[in-house]
Design brief:
This protein is an alpha/beta fold. It contains 15 helices and 20 strands. The strands form 5 sheets. A 7-stranded mixed beta sheet has the order 10-13-14-9-8-15-16, sandwiched between helices. A 6-stranded mixed beta sheet has the order 5-4-3-6-7-18, with helices on both faces. Strands 1-2-20 form a 3-stranded antiparallel beta sheet. α2 runs antiparallel to α4, α4 packs across α14 and α5 crosses α14.
């Protein structure tokens, strides 16, 4: 690991990556190797947890391709020196900010979207002019292997290298001195990464998770609300960091909501053979999720099949904060439904939990919308939709508090892998004597006057 990092550092120090055309070449190379090997990517991820070609393209590859195109289209603008105003105290002069790459970066991907959550940060890092070591999650072993095979045979390891492995390999990587670490995963592991980074004062972006709520008010468009909510929750069998984790529905429409959501799930016919559902990633997660299904709280679903790692889309009703499903992030196809009388009550109860990565409000009322957006702290979210905010590269994506540090996507990703170097450029044709010795009451008086004009 040390040898890989040092080779990348030596290459970075040649300043080759600061050339924008060089960066564009690397982005083109990444796009081509993924585009030319789409079928291999589809086959690998299906072997891991039966993810269909449709879902793999729409929720993974399409987003990566868009990130690459977005970076190529905007790289000159994002990298441009930014002029800023120079204050009177520094007259005559000019001021500007230079964006420069951080250096050697480590990207640790997540298992639930093994391509998108590994390669989108890589796109941002390469666009910003860094070298990158990618450590994909070992849980989807076939997906990890295909990324390693394709990338390592295409890229010079001094620029981009995939390192496979589990905890021992990740631990050894974290012992190295990086210029940036980008991690996507659980809050528990995020703490370990953060602690390791702190030893070298390495900046981090942590994309974590949390219990993301969805609030549903009586004045929502119930038909559209349920349609969008069911899609967002059961996409990837609920194994999505920004999936609605639980629902707060207004009591006035509680019964109508329950009937509508059951009907929508029936209509969608989630199943492996319909190519719109996936397996739980492994036995450990299957067993964890199965324990959350309390039989007397099941309003819909609840069936499981351990050998197939299948859990039927499940709705839990009349749930309390003491139930197993409310004790941790679910990360599976189980949706607890709670009710409320006033929206303020629901917001206050949600605030008892750590700040989530996302939150959603389904309402036709501006007052209700603003109540949630202003009072609840969360990473990002949507009004009258769920999950789809991740598809807009103009919106920085990231958490707050326990749900993460920093953000990426589009320009935010480029900035996250860049250092903003501030420069004051002074002219030499004029020099006021005010700051120099000897000090005097008169000089101080003039300095105070000038400060008031700033």
């Amino acid at each position: 690991m040390h040898h890989i990092v040092e080779n990348q550092r030596n290459f970075f120090n040649t300043n080759t990556t600061k050339n924008l055309q060089f960066r564009l070449t690397q982005l083109d190379k990444l796009y081509s190797v993924l585009k030319n090997n789409e079928q291999a990517l589809y086959d690998a991820i299906y072997k891991d947890f039966k993810k269909s070609e449709f879902d793999t393209y729409t929720s993974e590859l399409a987003l990566i391709f868009h990130d690459i195109k977005d970076a190529k289209r905007n790289i000159y603008k994002w990298a441009r020196r930014k002029k800023v105003r120079t204050n009177l105290m520094n007259f005559p002069g000019k001021s500007y900010i230079i964006k420069e790459p951080l250096g050697v970066c480590l990207v640790i991907g997540a298992w639930n979207y093994p391509y998108q959550l590994s390669l989108s940060p890589v796109v941002a890092a390469l666009a910003a002019g860094n070298t990158v070591i990618l450590k994909p999650s070992e849980l989807p072993a076939h997906s990890s292997k295909v990324m390693a095979t394709l990338i390592n045979k295409t890229f010079d390891p001094k620029i981009l290298k995939v390192v496979e492995g589990g905890v021992p390999e990740t631990t050894e990587l974290l012992e190295q001195d990086f210029d940036k670490i980008f991690f996507t995963g659980s809050t528990r592991v995020g703490r370990i990464v953060y602690e390791a980074a702190a030893k070298n004062l390495t900046p981090v972006t942590l994309e974590l998770g949390g219990k993301s709520p969805a609030f549903i008010t009586k004045d929502c468009n119930l038909k559209i609300t349920v349609k969008r909510l069911v899609w967002a929750k059961f996409l990837n069998a609920g194994q999505t960091c920004i999936a609605p984790d639980y629902v707060f529905v207004e009591k006035a429409i509680e019964q109508n909501f329950m009937e509508a959501i059951k009907a929508e799930i029936e209509k969608e016919q989630f199943a492996f053979e319909n190519n719109n559902y996936v397996q739980i990633i492994n036995d450990k997660n299957f067993e964890r999720l199965e324990k959350m299904i309390v039989p007397d709280k099941v309003a819909y679903g609840g069936s499981t099949n351990a050998p197939e790692r299948y859990i039927q889309p499940t709705i839990l009703h009349k749930v309390t904060f003491n139930d197993p499903s409310m004790q941790e992030e679910i990360f599976g196809p189980i949706l607890p439904v709670l009710s409320y009388t006033t929206l303020q009550e629901a917001i206050e109860r949600s605030r008892q939990l750590p700040k989530p990565l996302s939150a959603y409000i389904f309402t036709g009322s501006k007052k209700n919308r603003e109540e949630v957006l202003q009072q609840l702290s969360f990473g990002g979210g949507a009004v009258n939709d769920a999950v789809m905010h991740i598809s807009n590269p103009k919106l920085p994506f990231g958490g707050v508090g326990h749900s993460g540090i920093g953000s990426y996507h589009g320009k935010a990703g480029f900035d996250g892998f860049s250092h903003k170097k501030s420069i004051l450029h002074r002219a030499t044709w004029l020099e006021l004597p005010l700051k120099y010795f000897p000090h005097s009451a008169s000089k101080l008086k003039w300095i105070k006057r000038l400060m008031k004009l700033q």
